[in-house]
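Board notes (copied after class):
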Amino acid sequence: MKLKIKQLLILLVLISLSFQVYSNPLVISTRFINKWNAKIPKSILTKKLANLSFKELQSYLSKAERIDFLLEKAYIEGRINPAYMYALRLKYSKIPNGDKFLFMCLKDKRCNLLTFSEQADTWLYQYFIQKLSFIPSKYELEKKIIADFVERFTIKFFEKNGWKCLSGKYRGDNGFDGLCVKTNFLGKIQDVLILESKANNSQLIKTSNGKQMSTSWVISILKSLKNQEDANKNWLEKLIFGNKYQDILRLVEQGKYRRRLIRIKSTKQGLDIEMYSVRSKGYSDISVELKNHIKANLIKPRTKQDKYIKSIVEEALEETLEKYQ
């Protein structure tokens, strides 16, 4: 009996040692290099994911090989659990441009490979990965490029519906996503519309001046815009032209304005657009109410609405691409 226990303990020790050897990064790295050495120069093999370029991989590997290579490289660098390797390989192999999206996600340490695969297989993400002359990180795509497109689309949508949109930005990119007005025949501002656009599941945030779109937040931005315009005009220009932001501020302080939150989500067929009316909930908070919900098929636009939305989308996409190419 004692002999059997000893044998069992020795066996367990041997298993433990073999597991440690197999999971040793040095051993894994050696196996990885031996596997890919015949296809890729060692100078590329030994690079960290952060320093790799997609063009380097594209020159030597097929799409399926690029996905395998990237997943194995990510495992070596501790980016993924080996238990998910098969599922990830399957997911990204099925997605058009899946190798590019996998590369994009691995470039951003905040990116969840499993959940990002669902977003990658949608119309808007596929559009940008095909049209951009570079592969951005997930963060850069969502927080800059897609956010920029959503803002441009929102402004164009309301401009085509009779609004004139002014610059709502100060000190760089601070301010409103959209500030639109309607005037009478003398050019006097009579109606004001404040726009805030959000992509996918982005939320309105709390600021030092209250929640986005709240009365306090709107007034604080208009004051900054008014001060910026005052600083950019001489006394004669102020006398002749006045300050349009002062006129807008006056209307807002009287409660004579409207607010709209536009949320745009990318779907497999196109875009899901939700338009919310925003109301004050006290001075620094808000409540929202869904007013319009548009599901636009941009792959096969059949209805008049689909075609109308597609025409606006194409204009906004073209301007966005011009900025980032």
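Comment from the instructor: The longest strand covers residues 286-297. The chain has 14 helices and ten strands.
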